[in-house]
Amino acid sequence: MRDTWQNQLLQGFSTPAQLLDYLELPSDFGSTKANQQFVTRVPRRFVDKMEKGNRHDPLLLQVLPQQIELDSKPGFSPDPLVERAANPTPGILHKYHGRVLLTLSGACAVNCRYCFRRHFPYQDNALGNKKLTQALDYIRQDSSIREVILSGGDPLMVKNKALSVLLANLEVIPHVTTLRIHSRIPIVLPERIDTDFLAILDGCHLEKVMVVHCNHAQELDEVVANCCKQLKQHGVHVLNQSVLLKGVNDAVDTLVDLSRALFRCGILPYYLHLLDKVDGAAHFDVDSQRAISLHRAMLERLPGYLVPKLVTERFGEKSKSWVG
Ligand SMILES: *Cc1c(COP(=O)(O)O)cnc(C)c1O
Ligand code: SF4
């Protein structure tokens, strides 16, 4: 079998037992029931960055279904962002001035336990042609839209051919100047950023921004660094967003190391998000007072350009809300 990114996806881990066995950990540390709510999905190369025998590994905790997810907690709900309210046509989320999110794919290369996607049934539905045409019409008809943000799921789950057609459609819309891609794939499956994809970026005349998603320095390695450097060489600004997660990255040293490691990969920190209060993720929650003090400590230790903005999403606001 050829070692394409699609094959790497197929060869990823898909049950807690498989993951724990590989990491030489007891199987009762995982939960089959939590796995039924939101299935395990993680590429092998991400698992290979985890430490064997360490049940507190910060990468493992992000992807392993655990019993604790089944505890319900007040204030946490299945759809904390009330996304439907800003959904003028399928696939489009238009909440902020000048930019729209276009949700291309419901699927991801990795299933992160803290993600609001865990409660949506649409996980593997790509945006069909008819809906895509409607979404493009929406963008064409609103001349205030300067920036189109490809999102998901993970938009890089979509094949190069389809992306190429989409970009060709976007770049002829006169008011659209900027293409942004929100993707965790450069971190968890950098092989996806292949020569065909880079050629598509070269051929696209829009300003290009990629916002990757990395929560811990241990997720980064030479291959990821090379991938992000390639993106830069092909005219893409590369930024990172993280989620502040208890037990994963809620320590000053960890956050400082992350910013420095991102910088070595040519990535600038953009946002540090408070957790979305989604059912099943309460054990990751860091309260906002602690988040503010961690953020302040980062400001005292790092140059300003390596300190991400601490933000959260509040229903009805015209932008992300700055915390603190
Ligand atoms: C986060 C988000 C954006 C992008 O916001 P920026 O502050 O520009 O990064 C755009 N639209 C929606 C619906 C979002 O949730
Ligand atoms: S959308 Fe992002 S955070 Fe959610 S599962 Fe996919 S990669 Fe993880």
Structural class based on helices, strands and sheet pairing: alpha/beta
CATH architecture of the largest domain: Alpha-Beta Barrel
Contiguous low-pLDDT stretches (5 residues minimum) are none
Estimated helix fraction: 25-40%
Mean pLDDT: 94
CATH class of the largest domain: Alpha Beta
Major pleated sheet: 9 strands, mixed
Widest sheet: strand ordering: 1-2-3-4-5-6-7-8-9
Total number of distinct structural domains: 2
- Helix tally? 12
Q: Give, in order, the helices and strands.
A: HHHHHEEHEHEHHEHEHEHEE
CATH superfamily of the largest domain: Aldolase class I
Report Rg.
19 Å
- Identify the overall geometry: globular
Distinct small molecules bound, one entry per kind? pyridoxal-5'-phosphate, iron/sulfur cluster
How far do the termini sit from each other?
51 Å
